[in-house]
């Protein structure tokens, strides 16, 4: 299916499922799995499936996906075109299939700052623009200059400026639309000895290598670095986005809970961003909810991660997500929006 690509591998449906392709480790078998190791193979594969009218799902690291149980009538197209290089002194280019954390390591090892706070985020480089990944005060939109896209509607392979993606908080016009496939990305970084100010360290700046190590360790303590042995990391990361609400709504919640220091962050449009994790906890869902026997539980390290304890199905994860979302809505009137992409299933 990947055209001239001798490196393309078609894996039989019987030996693989989305449980092995995603970090939540749930989901049924796709019709086929096609692994593409070059940008051209990726574009050709998607073009051929589109021309044949066949459903497909582009899959990077599978770390932001909730896929339904049972057989799925779609082909999983695995993005595996790696490669990380310097275009000039401050511009890094990465193939969509490069491991994102390897891109960060590459930048740091070349004394380039700007993405060290995004250390340890699982998944592929090509997926970082899809939801404008962010952590610890940094977002990919801060440094992304352009993206090479395979446009599935026009059949054009072109570099487009980052501005054309409508990048916003955990959003781009690529997310949920599947209108295009990211083939490569380019980042403009800055020569630096010190990191950007690190929010979780009160604005302190550290040497780049130390900053990266600090971020990874901080993330690990919250189960936010993948670790096969740690079920708290069998997740899709933060399961809900932080809700953005009117100031009056934030005031009402703060008054109702009656605790000092509710996390609330002013937004440019005058509204306020609340912490989904804080709301979930205050709505009566502690870490580890609903308890030791449940196959799907909130992480014991981070309320915002829904985790598979080993035997969870997609239905178990969805049931837990519905439970938590309904509880927060009932208590605060705030409807949490899931962050991952849902396939064949919905909340
Ligand atoms: C433990 C853990 C911690 C996390 N921490 C963070 C965090 O701090 N910040 C954050 O923002 N996210 C975080 N995430 C979420 C996730 O890692 C990111 O969203 C990541 O960018 C997803 O990459 P992926 O390659 O795994 O994408 P996938 O899960 O494979 O795909 C996600 C979506 O992107 C699409 N997609 C993937 N590749 C391409 C491509 N090349 N072209 C077009 N569409 C594509 C897919 O079709 C799907 O719709 C975390 C996840 C986990 C499991």
From TrEMBL:
Q: Kindly name one Pfam family recorded for this protein.
A: MurB_C
Q: Which GO terms describe its cellular component?
A: cytosol
> What EC number is given for this enzyme?
1.3.1.98
UniProt catalytic activity: UDP-N-acetyl-alpha-D-muramate + NADP(+) = UDP-N-acetyl-3-O-(1-carboxyvinyl)-alpha-D-glucosamine + NADPH + H(+)
Gene3D superfamilies assigned to the protein according to its UniProt record, in alphabetical order = 3.30.465.10, UDP-N-acetylenolpyruvoylglucosamine reductase, C-terminal domain, Uridine Diphospho-n-acetylenolpyruvylglucosamine Reductase, domain 2
Q: Name one GO molecular function term.
A: ATP binding
- What biological-process terms (Gene Ontology) are attached? cell division; cell wall organization; peptidoglycan biosynthetic process; protein folding; regulation of cell shape
List, alphabetically, the InterPro entries matched: Chaperonin_Cpn60_CS, FAD-bd_PCMH, FAD-bd_PCMH-like_sf, FAD-bd_PCMH_sub1, FAD-bd_PCMH_sub2, MurB, MurB_C, MurB_C_sf
Q: Where is the active site?
A: 170, 238 (proton donor), 339
Q: Which domain of life is it from?
A: Bacteria
Cell location: Cytoplasm
Give the record's keywords alphabetically.
Answer: Cell cycle, Cell division, Cell shape, Cell wall biogenesis/degradation, Cytoplasm, FAD, Flavoprotein, NADP, Oxidoreductase, Peptidoglycan synthesis
Its required cofactor(s), as named, are: FAD
Major place of localization?
cytoplasm
Which residues belong to any copy of the FAD-binding PCMH-type domain?
26-192
Pathway(s) served: Cell wall biogenesis; peptidoglycan biosynthesis
Annotated family: Belongs to the MurB family.
Q: Which PANTHER family match?
A: UDP-N-ACETYLENOLPYRUVOYLGLUCOSAMINE REDUCTASE
Functionally, this protein is described as follows: Cell wall formation.
Protein name (Swiss-Prot/TrEMBL): UDP-N-acetylenolpyruvoylglucosamine reductase
Organism encoding this protein: Corynebacterium qintianiae
Phylogenetic placement of the source organism: Bacteria, Bacillati, Actinomycetota, Actinomycetes, Mycobacteriales
């Amino acid at each position: 299916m990947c055209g001239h690509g001798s490196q393309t591998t078609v894996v039989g449906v019987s030996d693989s499922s989305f449980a092995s392709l995603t970090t939540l480790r749930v989901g049924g078998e796709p019709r086929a799995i096609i692994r593409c190791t070059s940008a051209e193979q990726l574009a050709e594969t998607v073009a051929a499936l589109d021309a044949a009218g066949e459903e497909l799902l582009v899959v990077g690291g599978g770390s932001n996906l909730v896929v339904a149980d049972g057989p799925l009538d779609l082909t999983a197209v695995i993005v595996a075109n790696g490669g990380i290089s310097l275009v000039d002194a401050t511009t890094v280019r990465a193939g969509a299939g490069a491991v994102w954390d390897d891109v960060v390591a590459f930048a740091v090892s070349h004394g380039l700052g700007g993405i060290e706070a995004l250390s340890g985020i699982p998944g592929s480089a090509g997926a970082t623009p899809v939801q404008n990944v962010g952590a610890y005060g940094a977002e990919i939109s801060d440094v992304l200059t352009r993206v090479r896209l395979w446009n599935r509607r026009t059949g054009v392979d072109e570099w487009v400026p980052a501005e054309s993606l409508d990048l916003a908080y955990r959003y781009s016009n690529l997310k949920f639309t599947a209108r295009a496939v990211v083939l490569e990305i380019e980042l403009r970084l800055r020569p630096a000895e010190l990191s950007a100010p690190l929010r979780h360290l009160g604005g302190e700046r550290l040497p780049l290598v130390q900053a990266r190590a600090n971020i990874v360790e901080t993330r690990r303590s919250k189960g936010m670095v993948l670790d096969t042995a740690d079920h708290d990391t069998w997740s899709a990361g933060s399961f809900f986005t932080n809700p953005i609400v009117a100031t009056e709504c934030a005031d009402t919640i703060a008054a109702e809970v009656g605790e000092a220091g509710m996390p609330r962050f002013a937004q440019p449009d005058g509204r306020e961003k609340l912490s989904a994790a804080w709301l979930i906890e205050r709505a009566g869902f502690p870490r580890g909810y609903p308890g030791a026997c449940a196959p799907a539980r909130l992480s014991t390290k981070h309320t915002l991660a829904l985790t598979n304890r080993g035997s969870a199905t997609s239905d178990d994860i969805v049931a837990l997500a519905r439970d938590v979302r309904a509880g927060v809505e009932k208590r605060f009137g705030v409807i949490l929006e899931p962050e991952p992409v849902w396939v064949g299933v919905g909340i």
